[in-house]
Amino acid sequence: MLSALTQLLVFQLAGEVLARGLNLPVPGPVLGMLFLFVTLLLRGGPDESLQSTSSGLLQHLSLLFVPAGTGIMIHLHRVADEWLPLLVSLVVSTLATLVVTAGVMRLCQRRLPAGEEAS
Amino acid sequence: MNPQFNEIWVYLSASPLLGLTVTLLAYQAAFWLYRRSGMNPLANPVLIAVVILVLFLTLTATTYETYFAGAQFVHFLLGPATVALAVPLYQHLRRVRSMLWPVIAGLVAGSLTAALSAVAIAAVFGASEPVQRSLAPKSVTTPIAMGIAERIGGIPSLTAVLVIVTGILGAVGARHVFDAMKLRDPAIRGFAIGVASHGIGTARAFQVSEQAGAFAALAMGLNGALTALLLPLVMAWLH
């Protein structure tokens, strides 16, 4: 677990250094994910410790959003002032995104003959 | 209040231990309720935990800053968790490769819909400029969205809240939307949840199926990267 956690942090650090060093708009952890992905491709898969640590971390992914979500406390006044545009925008836009993404994917998949492997 | 308890409270409320512990306790209570409800998406554990914490902090007159001094240790793990998403992604590589074009088309369409429709609707309903800008990255995972908000003139901490609400809305609404569309493929369902509602949607997708979770994780990573690249340009062009 310790070695897996260290690996994750090292990849994040590498991503962070590259993103800031080259002034890339992509956040460090996303680059870190990319590096780990490429490493897994080269290594032929995660070892057991990385496997179990990452699935443990991802199983409780929702927990990690709680501190940021609690920040609603300091924005209650703004949310109260502009609740209508916020509510309509969030609900409609989220549903529209689900429909558009899934619809476009299904359309695109139907156009490709089944079994064709795009590589 | 008994003076000794008062002293203990003064010590505890200034230490990160309290913020960290109440976060974990609130989440465990919320998760217990979520399971009791048969994993009903309306009983979203993030939503319940946030409600418990806001009530607790308000009742004890604790500021968010004091709370966050402890809760930041949990918040910090968002970084390594984002990196860890590479693992399920790798494991579902074959399926992802067979769906390369649908994935790319869905990503671009979904990413633009998420940002532009949010800003347009908010503008029509008269939201202020900083609120519109804070809404734009709402479908992107928290750490990335906060960075984008800062770049495009939004309020990062407000964005963090809007991101969470979006995540919960997606997790609650997705099943109904997909059922109405008669869409069953777990890969497409997962991917669309990931684009629309990032990590909270991904967490929900993992609870439904491992494959949906992997596609949601892929979508969340790709959408984060694409939005981070595109949105600053699009917003500059719009204004």
Can you describe this structure?
The complex is a heterodimer of chains A (119) and B (239). Chain A is an all-alpha fold and 119 residues long. Chain A has two domains: 59 residues; 52 residues. Chain A has six helices and no strands. Chain A starts with a helix and ends in an 8-residue tail after the last helix. The N and C termini of chain B lie far apart (56 Å). Chain B is built from 13 helices and no strands. With 239 residues, chain B is an all-alpha fold. The model of chain B has no long low-confidence stretch (mean pLDDT 90). Chain B is globular, with a radius of gyration of 19 Å. Chain B folds into two domains: 74 residues, no CATH class; 157 residues, no CATH class. The chains are: A mainly alpha (119), B mainly alpha (239). Chains A and B meet through helix 1, helix 2, helix 3, helix 4 and helix 6 of A and helix 2, helix 3, helix 4, helix 5 and helix 6 of B.
Low-confidence stretches of chain B: none
- The span between the termini of chain A is 34 Å
Alpha plus pi helix count of chain A? 6
Output the radius of gyration of chain A: 20 Å
Q: Regions of chain A with pLDDT < 50 over 5+ consecutive residues?
A: 115-119
Largest protein interface?
Answer: A-B, 77 and 113 residues
Our Rg estimate of chain B from Cα atoms comes to: 19 Å
Structural class of the helix and strand makeup of chain A?
mainly alpha
First and last CA, distance of chain B:
56 Å
Summarize the structure.
Chain A contains six helices and no strands. Chain A is mainly alpha-helical.
Write the layout of secondary structure elements.
The complex is a heterodimer of chains A (119) and B (239).
Chain A: H1 2-21, H2 28-43, H3 48-59, H4 66-70, H5 76-81, H6 83-111
Chain B: H1 3-13, H2 16-36, H3 45-59, H4 64-76, H5 78-84, H6 86-91, H7 93-98, H8 100-124, H9 129-135, H10 142-152, H11 156-180, H12 186-208, H13 210-238
